[in-house]
Amino acid sequence: MNYSEVEASILRLVTEATEDSARAFAEQTVTRLVRPELLHAAAEDELTEDARTALTTGCANVLMMGPAELHDLLGAIDGGTLVDDGLDTGVLTAVTALEHWKNYLEQNRRSELYELAVRSIEDIDHEVSATLDDFLATPEMAAEYARIRRLLTPGPE
Length: 157
What we know:
Elements: H1 3-16, H2 19-33, H3 49-60, H4 67-79, H5 89-107, H6 110-128, H7 139-152
Helix pairs in contact: 1-6, 1-7, 2-5, 2-6, 3-4, 4-5, 5-6, 6-7
């Protein structure tokens, strides 16, 4: 599958998922995207100490926080970002995932799940550099796509 086909397939899966499947996918994916090892490479000069603490807290407690708490943490992170461009990829992935999760919790919009799925695919792509023409050629990318499909496709009742 090429990249456009993968995106279209994910959009279809997100749209057709049951509420339970969508929620399970969202929880597992946001947890994967805010894992602690993504934050290790963040340079000291990218975030203030308060912003770094807010990010660490948000990542560690993502499933236990409500949208208002996440909103406050994201505000602290945004206010404590010291660079205009070039934020560490892991930090950017985590912050973006927190934002999509917050929006999903607030509005229950499926488009936020699609965005989480795309961020998850991009996270793998950052590690293995998949080709756009055969996006699932690497075992890592194929496994991530299979994980997304498995979680969003309801099993037999």
